[in-house]
């Protein structure tokens, strides 16, 4: 898979490193020459292009024509929006993701159909969830915040402990995707027994998260 | 008409003064409050300091009932983002975007934004003036075609 990252700040740099170590073909576009050179020196297997990522010519230099994913992670939201729109609409890249620096801009990206990741929002959500939901964590919000992957830790007091999957009545629009037991991933079937200590990974619509929590972990 | 102008540089300020003096309701937005000094004392519209693509600021500017919207900041990407919010999210009827980079203007024209690439227009005016050519200049604002009439030189005495 070919991934093109625009923006060589801390996020872009770490992402490029992680992806190239993970075996992905990775390219990175960075505006500032000094930073671009530094990244090029550090990351052998990443194609680094020095230039403005909002310039279609630079994106072509970085191989956007064969990119399956474009990630725009500059510090300017307006740039990230334009990069993603260029990638999707002009170059036909199948998957584009934008970093949103100011959470107030998230709604704009969503309404214009661009998937976003906002570290501010994620941290805020994590803290909120720590505070209110307890044992259930939203791992990832997908499809512009409509779908989320959540993790719930089963304990002895959980209503689902020592029950089989088929005995559990899940709320609508949610499914149990897998169970992690002793660091082993299991795919649940109807007769799988849930045990205290299990970690359940479930998919649900955002609005069903609370109902799902109640089903799995009981009322607070 | 209720018109929102984003960017109070030389162009934005002049546009605001012009439209305001013709009796339109103008709200002008600029990220720097000191930019509003350019408007002079006769301007009787509203000025808001803030980012021109911030949904909260645009709501304060009355975007929900705006008739027209012009984005004339010095940043192409800011202009494009603000214009898309006006056009695609708030359905403002008339949205015009100033773009410096001609390449980007062409691309956004394809996306249905009405762009004016001042770089191209000024280059063409200079060219015609230098070559003493005709006084008609064709240009296009996005999907609509138009032209500017101007005089490149004084008529030579017969």
Can you offer a commentary on this structure?
Chain A: This is Trk system potassium uptake protein TrkA. Chain A has 220 residues and is of the alpha/beta class. Chain A has two domains: 2-118, Rossmann fold, CATH 3.40.50; 133-217, Alpha-Beta Plaits. Helix content of chain A is 32%, strand content 27%. Chain A contains seven helices and eleven strands. Chain A has helices spanning 10-21, 33-42, 56-61, 77-90, 106-111, 119-132, 209-217, and strands at residues 2-6, 25-30, 46-50, 69-72, 95-99, 115-117, 136-142, 147-153, 174-181, 184-186, 199-205. In chain A, strand 1, helix 1 and strand 2 (25-30) form a beta-alpha-beta unit. Chain A is elongated and about 60 Å long. The termini of chain A are far apart. The mean pLDDT of chain A is 87. Chain B is of the alpha/beta class. Chain B has a domain at 2-99: Rossmann fold. Chain B has helices at 10-21, 55-60, 76-89, 102-110, 118-130, and strands at 2-6, 25-30, 46-49, 68-71, 94-99, 114-117, 136-141, 144-149. The model of chain B has no long low-confidence stretch (mean pLDDT 86). Classes of the chains: A alpha/beta (220), B alpha/beta (158). Chains A and B meet through helix 4 and helix 5 of A and helix 3 and helix 4 of B.
Summarize the structure.
The complex is a heterodimer of chains A (220) and B (158). Chain A is an alpha/beta fold.
Characteristics:
A: about 220 residues; alpha/beta; Rossmann fold; Alpha-Beta Plaits; 2 domains; six-stranded parallel sheet; five-stranded antiparallel sheet; 7 helices; B: about 160 residues; two-stranded antiparallel ribbon; about 25% strand; globular; Trk system potassium uptake protein TrkA (chain A); potassium (chain A); NAD(P)-bd_dom_sf (chain A)
- Using only CA atoms, what is the Rg of chain A? 21 Å
Q: What CATH first level of the domain at 2-99 in chain B would be assigned?
A: Alpha Beta
Please state the average pLDDT score of chain A: 87
Q: Looking at this structure, what is the CATH superfamily of the domain at 2-99 in chain B?
A: NAD(P)-binding Rossmann-like Domain
What is the structural class of chain B?
A: alpha/beta
